[in-house]
Specification:
- It is a single chain.
- The chain is an alpha+beta fold and about 300 residues long.
- It has three domains: about 1-65, Roll (Structural Genomics Hypothetical 15.5 Kd Protein In mrcA-pckA Intergenic Region, Chain A), CATH 3.10.290; about 80-165, Pseudouridine synthase (2-Layer Sandwich), CATH 3.30.2350; about 165-275 and about 285-305, Pseudouridine synthase, CATH 3.30.2350.10.
- Helices cover about 20% and strands about 30% of the residues.
- The protein contains six helices and 17 strands.
- A hairpin with a 2-residue loop joins strand 14 (about 210-220) and strand 15 (about 225-230).
- Helix 1 (about 15-25) crosses helix 2 (about 30-35).
Amino acid sequence: MQDFALRFDGPEERRLDHFLAGALPQFSRSRLQDLIRKGAVLVDGERARKAGQLLSVGSRISMQVPPAVSAGLVAEDIALQVVFEDNNVLVVNKPAGLVVHPGAGHRTGTLVNAALAHDPSMMGVGGEERPGVVHRLDKDTSGLLVLAKNDAAMKVLQDQFQGRAVRKTYLALVDGRPPTATGRIQAAIGRDPIRRKRMSILPEGKGRGAETEYTTVEVLGEHTLLEVHPITGRTHQIRLHLSFLGCPIAGDTVYGRRRRSIALERHFLHAWKLEVALPDAQDHTEFVAPLPAELEEVLALLRAKK
């Protein structure tokens, strides 16, 4: 158990989670918010009401950080394709079909379960439910994903993702072609008001702002291979934005055509490149994950028909 005693000296009122994030940089903001929710943070001797509670000048804050617990998570011997690893991060090439973290319907067999077997010390990093998870990929999206191996690294990475300092590049094969060879899509995204398990493009002011850039790489008959750069990181953003543009991702039966236009039991979306500043490094490092064999085969078949 780690104990911390702090005093807020102003000069103006400030949110509790913002103050703790600045005073204790070794912890990620999500980890601090989790501790607040669990009652581990006291303000002037009373349990903090919420992460956004305002502190007054002279407020005394105490916090107890319990040792990491599993929250029911178990390490599982699942193969990982490690692209890079050091004391702070683990960069993997996730295959399609692998869920990133446990949730409803997927309590085991996830990337997190595999990462805990690879490095048990990641247990509890950033919170109990999703240890090490900084960002996510959909189950059927393959490619690069970075995990934090300690709370300090978690904070560094989260700050970059939230500050849009990470450059993500995807390869997407779409049905049809976009109206222009290059472009930017700006359309708000939120929970579908009718089909609650899906996301949807919503009117301005009702969803969260989202931006995606794309560039045409190759025209392949009735399909187009695109290089896609999501500026924001909303759930299902690339899939929704390309569908909104009129060229849904090939094989995406949720946001695209119900009948697949290619011989592939997944959607053709791959997190190809990731440029991020690693903890303790000043410059960005670029990681690359080549297209998996099943996607290369689809492209080879389409090229053969040209």
